């Protein structure tokens, strides 16, 4: 396991992924200099699992903007680093990763079939340089959240949740400021839930449930989105968000049948508040199970 801290991005070409012992500082177990604190515990200590905490007292610290973590930790906390690179494969079947006040980064936990909880609190100062988060979780039941501290309107992301029953919550991020900001996510195989505020820059696929945070937000649906999220057992579930359909779509509504009612009840929803929406496009027909006030 290794932790490297430093700054390689001096001309918009370096990144945390490029940190090495030669251009950064390799920390074995403890470091406390220049406003940066790093300490680790391994499974032989009193905590009984591998953990590392890496924090800087200043965001955008000139000599410590980046950190690179490679190991089999169960708990990782990184705070106040602009650029973060984490490759982790937990030995105990789970991991909890907090990345606080980061502008960009790469997190890959696909090396183990672990249940991963990843929380990223986004801080960005501008659209310049990269604002991209790349997240790959692989197998396991994973829970990923991206939240806004400041400047998340500049954030782009490419998220692959892999196999397993996963939850992605991006509802706290600010809507993308520019159309060219790419936000893509693939739920992968399994039963996957997307929690969103309806930002129309988000391209999502492989989800069985889409939840909003209130009917003041609107989810825009087109034929491509419907086709990309058509793996649900009885239809794509859409709850707590309004819906806007593209002009090429038509739809009808009907009551739930008993199987659909039981399905929603088993998922923890109040089936009495849902209806069936059958959407027709030029390339097919799609079934949605929609909370009654959420279709337009």
Walkthrough of the structure:
- The protein is mainly beta.
- It has two domains: about 1-205; about 210-295, no CATH class.
- Helix content is about 5%, strand content about 45%.
- It is built from two helices and 25 strands.
- The protein has helices spanning about 225-230, 260-265; strands at about 1-5, 25, 30-35, 35-40, 50-55, 65-70, 75-80, 85-90, 95-100, 105-110, 115-125, 130-135, 145-150, 155-160, 165-170, 185, 195, 200-205, 210, 220, 235-240, 240-245, 250-255, 275-280, 285-290.
- It has a 14-stranded mixed beta sheet. The protein has a nine-stranded mixed beta sheet with strand order 2-1-6-8-10-12-14-16-18. A two-stranded parallel ribbon has the order 20-22.
- β24 and β25 (about 285-290) form a beta hairpin.
- The longest helix is centred in the last third of the chain and has 9 residues, at about 260-265.
- The chain starts with a strand and ends in a 5-residue tail after the last strand.
- The mean pLDDT is about 95.
